[in-house]
Amino acid sequence: MSESIFSVQERSRLLPLVYKLRRSVGVAMQPEDYKRLLAALREVAAKGHYSRDRYGMHPLIHNLETACALCERVSPDRNMVIAVMLGRLCRRGAISIEDIESTWGKDTAKLVGGMVKVSTLYAKQSAVESDNFRSLLLTFAEDIRVIIIMIVERMVLMRAINHHPDNDFVQSVAREANYLYAPLAHRLGLYSIKSELEDMSLKYTNRDIYTKIARKLNETKVKRDAYIADFIKPIREKLKSEGLDFEIKGRTKSIYSIWNKIKKQKVDLDHIYDLFAIRIILNVPKDKEKSECWLAYSLITDMYRPNPSRMKDWLSIPKSNGYESLHITVYGPEDRWVEVQIRTKRMDLIAEKGLAAHWKYKGIKSEGNLDAWMNNVRDILEAGDNGPMELMKNLRMDVYDKEVFVFTPKGDLHRLPLGATVLDFAFHIHSALGCKCTGARVNERNEKLNYKLRSGDTVEILTSSSQMPKRDWLNIVVTSKARNKIRLTVHEQENKSAELGKELLIRRMKNRKIELDDASIMRLIRKMGYKTVTDFHNAIATEKVDVNAVIDNYEAMERRSTESVERVSAEEFTLQSQIPEDPTSSDILIIGNDIKGINYRMAKCCNPIYGDDVFGFVSAEGVIKIHRKDCPNAAHIREKLPYRLIRTQWSGKIGAQFAATLRIVGTDDIGIVTNITSIINKQQNVSLRNISINSNDGLFQGFVIIGVGDTQSLTDIIKKIRTVKGVKDVQRSK
Description:
The chain is an alpha+beta fold. Helices cover 48% and strands 16% of the residues. It has 26 helices and 21 strands. The strands form six sheets. Strands 1, 2, 3, 4, 5 and 6 form a six-stranded mixed β-sheet that branches. Strands 13-15-14-16 form a four-stranded mixed β-sheet. It has a four-stranded antiparallel β-sheet with strand order 19-20-18-21, with helices on one face. A hairpin with a 2-residue loop joins β19 (687-696) and β20. α3 runs antiparallel to α4 (78-91), α5 (97-104) runs antiparallel to α6 and α9 (167-187) packs antiparallel against α10. The chain starts with 7 loop residues before the first helix and ends with a strand. 32% of the residues are buried.
């Protein structure tokens, strides 16, 4: 391996690191594999692929230190070590995934592929201080071992930048380690790595605080060690006398943990009573673990008074992550409280090097499916006889398989549900952006609105000022935000269009000197097959139906309603004596000279009721139509067909109900229609026959057909409806 690419200091470290890796990896890697790996590294080094990165770091030295730390702090693993040594070379194009697979196997190639894929996230220049980035990292990694490699690699990097001249780089790495990698290490139970990352992060971001605490700890180290020795001595003798196989460790809390306690408890270092802890580790068979832990507890509390409020029993009921231990705080010499942790060797191994233990310990929040997934990891680790990494090869990182994570061109990261499209993303960013969206540039390629996003996509939304939401967009989007906004906007557009259509119809009818009757136009709308008035007016505005054709149909319908067919002279006309439609009303009208047995009908164009001023009109079929004198068609009938008019008046006998149409306008509030119908139903001798409601821009307009006995009853019901809260106007429709 050419030494010209190394500094003097690096050359002095190179061979010791190579030998250290050989010792650390042990039997996990065969000698032949180790020799082939060194040969491959020499080859790529000779080709100049080991150039320093932009921060002056040498990749080979960094990779060797990472591989050694991985073996020491986690687990010796052949494929992971090879992936660490080849991953950076693959990213630089010095070696391909295909070459790695053919030489080192599919599993190693899978790890390297995951490392390369994750490295692309940093090219996005995204802010890593977000839960979305952490989730995307887990999604991209695909294999938990990739995450473990990244955590160890970051720990090694943090060690290397202690005196790096680029302070911005150091600060960025430190913040990223504290926010992203320390919590991941915590979740995976890599406690020693987590503590080291946190301590170094504090050191680089707040060196004064770190130095002050470290100096204070160093000044009190001798005294603290002496205190621990005095505290442990009687415990050691007592446990030995009971025949227990054990070891005792005394440890000081991490500087970062101490700093958090100082901030939380608002005290100085001298007043933190659990500054250090004693750990008693018993070497016992699994079936005797609990009994001997409780025996040790009994012996210790006989010597030192315990604080019951600070006892934590995770033996009887282990924590949800599988963590088992017995924590007690006792009153030791010099009036000081000391924390004592009692556990077995198995429990300590899981807590210290297990990859899933402790991930929720001390308040680390869970993230939905991550709970169950991490518990599955723990089960696999605890069941493994051939090493935990061997069992984890086929464990997929599908924690977030129901979500996608996409970037904006500026590197901002957003989370959306699986199946979300470009249009969903546009509305997710801003509703106004969604309404004007015409497509997107996804990873520098033009894509349509219905393109389904994939994790890691970089999306730039394309817009047009003339673009407007369409109803068929509802078939493209999957998010509720996009659906609701599309529905609302389309509804507003249709209402505006309907207003224009309504104004156009009224204006054209005025130009042709035609009076618009609400009841008649409603009958025409239903006849033309429209469900709502808005749909009808919108069709006129969008020219789906010709407004002149509508008016022609309206006139034809009105002519048919007045039965103004071919003219028949009075001499040729003969009244037909038939049974009236409603026998109960046969004597409530006096027609002509009190002619009896006349077949008459109430005209539907004006719906006269008892008490109205009326007149009769003789139709061609011999049926007399009874119209109100203020009927919209009265002027036309008197002018064109005066010879068919017949004097008519009410007889004074009330016995039937008449249909009357009311036009009601009011505020579109919940329950207003119910209140109106309730008043009608409660009114004596009044019945509700039909109701049609249409709402627009917070107002509603309804046509209500009721059965009433006379005009007085109609007047009374109108007055009562006007008292309903929200009703603005009630008129009898002609």
